[in-house]
Task: inverse folding
């Protein structure tokens, strides 16, 4: 009888260990980037580079990496397909890199399933048109709501300013 109890305990522990291992492999990792920077180099390194690097890491571990980017502050200009009639039209560095940057951001959306959300209140306050933004950018009522909702859905908070 003692031998049967020992075997049952070992089987239970083995099943528990396997279940824990499987859960760890299949666990979905989630991050929400709070993007406010006006610096194009920060966008390229800390946003684009980070998302690609982290996605590749989690993919190598057979884990899904879900990303949301909440855009507000000075970061609007990077997500606009049309800079005409805005103060951003005079940002020479942005205008020079705009086409390439737009393609890279779109590829994050398509290849890495990154969700981009722009603060509606902020774009209204800056008199920007929602139609001026890339089609892969969704509107969220305000940045705080976007960040709160994402964090309550289990997304880790990552500020980029």
Result:
């Amino acid at each position: 009888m003692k031998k049967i109890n020992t075997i049952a305990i070992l089987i239970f522990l083995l099943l528990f260990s396997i279940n824990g291992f499987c859960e760890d492999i299949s666990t979905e990792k989630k991050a929400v980037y709070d993007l406010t920077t006006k610096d194009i180099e920060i966008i390229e390194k800390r946003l684009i580079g980070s998302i690609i690097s982290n996605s590749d890491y989690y993919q190598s571990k057979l884990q899904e990496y879900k990303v949301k980017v909440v855009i507000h502050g000075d970061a609007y200009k990077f997500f606009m397909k049309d800079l005409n009639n805005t103060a951003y039209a005079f940002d020479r560095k942005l205008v020079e890199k705009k086409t390439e940057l737009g393609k890279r951001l779109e590829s994050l959306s398509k290849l890495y399933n990154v969700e981009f959300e722009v603060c509606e209140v902020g774009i209204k306050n800056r008199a920007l048109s929602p139609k001026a933004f890339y089609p892969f950018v969704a509107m969220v009522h305000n940045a705080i709501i976007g960040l709160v909702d994402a964090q309550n859905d289990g997304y880790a908070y990552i500020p980029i300013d």
In short: The mean pLDDT is 89. Strands lie at 29-35, 65-71, 115-119, 137-140, 156-160. The domain at 27-160 is CATH 3.40.1260.10 (Hypothetical Protein Ychn; Chain: A,).
